[in-house]
Amino acid sequence: xxxxxxxxxxxxxxxxxxxxxxxxxxxxxxxxxxxxxxxxxxxxxxxxxxxxxxxxxxxxxxxxxxxxxxxxxxxxxxxxxxxxxxxxxxxxxxxxxxxxxxxxxxxxxxxxxxxxxxxxxxxxxxxxxxxxxxxxxxxxxxxxxxxxxxxxxxxxxxxxxxxxxxxxxxxxxxxxxxxxxxxxxxxxxxxxxxxxxxxxxxxxxxxxxxxxxxxxxxxxxxxxxxxxxxxxxxxxxxxxxxxxxxxxxxxxxxxxxxxxxxxxxxxxxxxxxxxxxxxxxxxxxxxxxxxxxxxxxxxxxxxxxxxxxxxxxxxxxxxxxxxxxxxxxxxxxxxxxxxxxxxxxxxxxxxxxxxxxxxxxxxxxxxxxxxxxxxxxxxxxxxxxxxxxxxxxxxxxxxxxxxxxxxxxxxxxxxxxxxxxxxxxxxxxxxxxxxxxxxxxxxxxxxxxxxxxxxxxxxxxxxxxxxxxxxxxxxxxxxxxxxxxxxxxxxxxxxxxxxxxxxxxxxxxxxxxxxxxxxxxxxxxxxxxxxxxxxxxxxxxxxxxxxxxxxxxxxxxxxxxxxxx
Length: 565
Description:
single chain, 12 strands, Rossmann fold, two-stranded antiparallel sheet, 16 helices, 8-stranded mixed beta sheet, 2 domains, alpha/beta, elongated
């Protein structure tokens, strides 16, 4: 059983060096194939001695074939183990980095040692810091567990290869046709026997920190193999880096396009069920829409976009598309749209709107020395829709908001877990998406620092006026609401108390303007009207006040916001 102390000392160097020597020996051995094919009993030699000689030759050939397989198996295993150890080293490094940053250390047995919070922690923050440290302990335990699980998997696989070699069970060459001997063919069989397995991911309901630890402890080659061969295990796994999720989801999208196209052709040939045909056509339409979001007008892949989730199951397709690099941006915002939102309908417009928010936020940061921003449009739940009467039941039961809030919390937590440096994170929610956002923020550990809801009917999935901003697991004073003139959803629906206390009257909720105004730098800002103009850029290219305010919070510059009257 491998311990934490063991893995901190693992070094891929000696095995990597051994691969060269083993390869040299293997090449010399395979070069003997031609000589073996020339060995035969002289023509016309018969009798007992001739038979004994032929048997001896066959045993030599069989032995060399098995030896070639063993050498090739060892060469492959040594290379794979060396490569895999590089992944383990990365996993150890990430654990150590996180532990040191939070004043923890890891014992030789993998135990988490708490060295206490920073001595200069303000009194009014001590409780919040204590809660955060509890969550950090859980994350560190998850990460240590995953690194050790990977190390044990490597150790078990390597031992299995060595056991087969030492016991002579790599291949059985006695059944081969020695008239057509090929040591290279035997070596190919041995190479396949020497391959290491790739560690299976944690369960589908695992914490994002466990997914992050699993991914970090894999080598770059192992990750690339999973992205290529098993994208379904990677693309929707919260905690995996956004860049890798995007690569996997793009591969998965191509695979799903081919699958649904074949299904549709078959359904039409066989005069299949019309409802099933419509469902498959909707999936293909969604795939094409997502493809459009991920590409430039000339058809090339947009390097500024990341496909962070792709889910074609359920009643409606779901996806998450990012502008910017979520893995490296200093500021990350996750926007959840509301009712009537679909992947194949208005999501493309939302992604473009969030692109505008990203650009405005980065312009604000440029005035203070610069900074990078990424915005994510997350449609990972199924909003209610007037086109789907059955989905409207969610407005009454709150079921889709509650389920969506749980998924959104995991998504946000996954962004935080996938990074060794914590970004400044902002949750954005519009309409029904603000309810989902509110529910998600009642879960601790999302990593969200600020929240902005706009066009909001409320931020709770229950009746009553007992909810407050204190229910949101974000720093106090960091919740914001925007209500535009003529928006019935933000004005009248909150008075039903269906979704908790009205955001425009909630204690501790900062009220920001959507009216025309003048920005802090003297720039005129346009007013927004109704329910759907909060994030739009005006026809002349200028920002609305609401978009300006959203971007200021995303940039971590609340001093630039325009307060509501």
